[in-house]
Specification:
CATH architecture of the largest domain: Up-down Bundle
Shape: globular
Low-confidence stretches: none
Number of strands: 9
Number of helices: 11
Helix content: 40-55%
CATH class of the largest domain: Mainly Alpha
Largest sheet: 4 strands, antiparallel
Order of helices and strands: HHHHHHEEEEEEEHEEHHHH
Radius of gyration: 21 Å
Structural class: alpha+beta
Number of domains: 3
CATH superfamily of the largest domain: Butyryl-CoA Dehydrogenase, subunit A, domain 3
CATH topology of the largest domain: Butyryl-CoA Dehydrogenase, subunit A, domain 3
Mean pLDDT: 96
């Protein structure tokens, strides 16, 4: 039987003894990230969200905790397990989806693309600095008219002598205006290729998308690529086709399975605490049957969601995780997390629409999380194809 850090507040939603399923090392990592979130994110997130500001000042602290590219091996990366990565993601998203998204864009997308598909020179150039938080990366796949169907991208890279010249537009690209390197996916005469694009290259321009009602403590941009000239060695040499970006998207989707439940748990905890303190008709809200039903239903889904995340994490660490299983987790946990956050807001009444409490902020953020890395519809069709053997995407 494992014992969690006594300085960490117990999880009031845990009805099944979830911590007993984790190793001492996993609990230590989880509790370390939870302390960081409680000390650095929760006291400040309301103002960051209201100001629509991503706090670049906490990036070095995340790096010191080994959170950037934490599941990758070598090059200054922590080399932690999939379960470790998931536990950290859940704690970060309990603070805010935007902060967990930063770790995902940096590590699961940009760093993973270079780690999986880059040359040794590209890895040496970028990964140590990215792991240390000295360089931020972004991942340019989606376009204004090519979101769920990335094969429809129109960004094109043509050869010009030994160089490549890129033209096109990418949209909803996290961190693109603060990144030092952009991993850009483009059509070429030989198929879809990835490119490591230093963002100071002439012709690269990133403009934040504003105003937003979701993910306000995060950065999403539109990138314009106008005759961006790159040397031959800018291309990621070890992959051709959509399997390149999809291998990175699956890493990010896996992290969402955990992160969404972190947001749901935090919303539940706010609602539970409020219901125990707020008096209505002479007794706490928590003393009414309807309130207790809401709390129980939320807690049950949180427990089930974390069990699913842990099972998939163990499968991933064993090398047994299938892409359709990632869709199971992403579809279920995002859908349930949004429902939990909305229900938690009802317990808070009118106070729930203020930034003093987390549920509506989490619900708004989860609308984005539910959309990126595959919409509900896309994951439903992936699972429908798995069940029937008949693809219904078109």
């Amino acid at each position: 039987m494992t014992v969690s850090d006594p300085t960490i507040t117990a999880n009031p939603a845990d009805l099944i003894g979830f911590d007993s399923l984790l190793s001492p090392a996993e609990l230590e990592l989880r509790d370390t990230v939870r302390r960081f979130v409680q000390a650095e994110i929760k006291p400040n997130i309301a103002s960051w969200y209201e100001e629509a500001r991503f706090p670049l000042e906490i990036v070095p602290e995340m790096a010191k905790l080994g959170l950037l590219g934490m599941h990758l091996e070598g090059y200054g990366c922590a080399g932690r397990s999939a379960v470790d990565y998931g536990l950290a993601g859940a704690e970060l998203e309990a603070g805010d989806s935007g902060l967990r998204t930063f770790v995902s864009v940096q590590g699961s997308l940009a760093m993973s693309a270079i780690h999986k598909h880059g040359s040794e020179e590209q890895k040496q150039e970028w990964l140590p600095r990215m792991a240390a938080g000295e360089a931020i990366g972004c991942f340019g796949l989606t376009e204004p008219t090519a979101g769920s169907d990335p094969s429809g991208m129109t960004t094109f890279a043509r050869r010009d002598g030994n160089d490549w010249v890129l033209n096109g537009t990418k949209r909803w690209i996290g961190l693109a205006n603060v990144a030092a390197v952009a991993v850009i996916w483009a059509q070429t005469d030989e198929g879809i290729r990835g490119f490591a694009v230093p963002t100071d290259t002439p012709g690269y321009a990133a403009t934040p998308i504003e105003p937003k009602l979701s993910m306000r403590a995060s950065i999403q941009c539109e990138i314009e690529l106008t005759d961006v000239r790159l040397p031959a060695d800018a291309v990621l040499p070890n992959v051709v086709g959509l399997k390149g970006p999809f291998s990175c998207l699956n890493e990010a989707r896996y992290g969402i399975i955990w992160g969404a439940m972190g947001a749901a748990r935090d919303a539940f905890e706010d609602a539970l605490a409020y219901s125990q303190q707020r008096l209505q008709f002479g007794k706490p809200l928590a003393g009414y049957q309807l309130t207790q039903q809401k709390l129980v239903d939320m807690a049950l889904e949180i427990n089930k969601g974390f069990l699913l995340a842990l099972h998939l994490g163990r499968q991933k660490d064993a090398g047994l995780l299938s892409p359709h299983q990632i869709s199971v987790g992403k579809l279920n946990n995002c859908r349930e997390a949004i429902a939990i956050c909305r229900e938690a807001r009802t317990i808070l009444g009118g106070n729930g629409i203020t930034l003093e409490y987390s549920p509506l902020r989490h619900a708004n953020n989860l609308e984005s999380v539910r959309t990126y890395e595959g919409t509900d519809e896309v994951h439903t069709l992936i699972l429908g194809n798995k069940l029937t053997g008949i693809p219904a995407f078109r």
